[in-house]
Every structure is written in C-alpha cells, then in structure tokens.
Task: structure prediction
Amino acid sequence: MSGKGVFISFEGIDGSGKSTQARRLTNTLHDAGFDVVLTREPGGSAGAEEIRKLVLEGDPDRWSAETELLLFTAARRDHLERLILPALKAGKVVICDRFADSTRMYQGLRGADLREKVDLLHEVMIGHEPDITVLVDMDPEIGLKRALARQGGEERFEQFGADLQQQMRTGFLALAKAAPDRYVVVNGGRDEDTVADEIAGIVSSRLR
Result:
C-alpha cells in the first residue's frame, strides 16, 4: 500500500457514473469507520483546480495533446504533493475520481508516440500508482449521451465524439487486463445501487 493509507482511483469513460460511485464508496467507507478523503483530477488542490479550468473548458482544439499532457502532469504533481501523499502518510483512505490512467487514455491515444511520453513523464514526475483502481465500464454511446446531457460547462473532451470514447473504453479494459492485481472492473450499465453494492463489497474485502 502507499505509505500507511490506501489509495483508490476510479476510472472510466465520460458518463460512466464513476464520479457518483466514487462518492458512494466514500460515504460507505466513512460509515464503516474509515478516515476517507474524496478528491478528483484534474484538481484536488488549489493550483490543480486552476489548471482544471484551462483543460476542461473551451474549444476542443484549444490545446494540443502535448500541451495537455504537460498541464495534466503539472496539476497531478501539485495534487500529489499537497493532498494525496500527506493524506496517505496520515493513514487515510484516498479516493480519487480519475488519476494517471485517464491521462494514458485521453492524451496517450491522440498521437502515435504520445503514450510513451505519458509514461515517461509519469515515471519522472509522479512515480505513484493507486493501490486499487475501480474501472466502471460502460457502453460508449450511452456514456457519451449521459455526459453531453449534463451541460455543466466541462464537456471539452466529450466534444471529441464517440470514436474517442470507444478507443478509451478499449484502452481502459486493456489497462485492467495488464494490471489485474490493481484493477477491479464493474459493469456500470446496471442500476446505481447494484453497482455501488458490488464496488463496496470488493473494496471492503481488500481493505480487510
């Protein structure tokens, strides 16, 4: 485990319901007596939240994939230093809505050599992986409809369309297959309570 605490990330395509499930797991573990910190990426610290506005709002072509990669890495480094590592050192459970695997997908899939750069920057500047990653799997077309329906002002990546969502789903499942000790894959197409119960059961058993 990372230090004394436990680091849990949630991953999935846009509209998969992972943010909802991250909140529900936070509440479940809190009720069970765990000291839990819920955070998100990009964001989670003051500096990272400022970067979030830069990368999630505006025209889809606002930034190149290379520039996005640098911005996300900067945000993640600040988040790691100021929130994640101190919380883990204090023995807390940190639940993060997205982490490095999202960058591996969103930026790593947008160019022939970008995935290698994503991994290199992660190794040099971040150097940490979650102890448990919950992948909320979802049909890309359904997820995209859900995401666009939110109209929350942070739909820049959703505007890249269904093809990217399909590529990311395939990529996330490949990551899960490559790291079975870290990944838990759940079917996000079922009702919210059923998904939450399954995640809570799996994570609680691992924490015990």
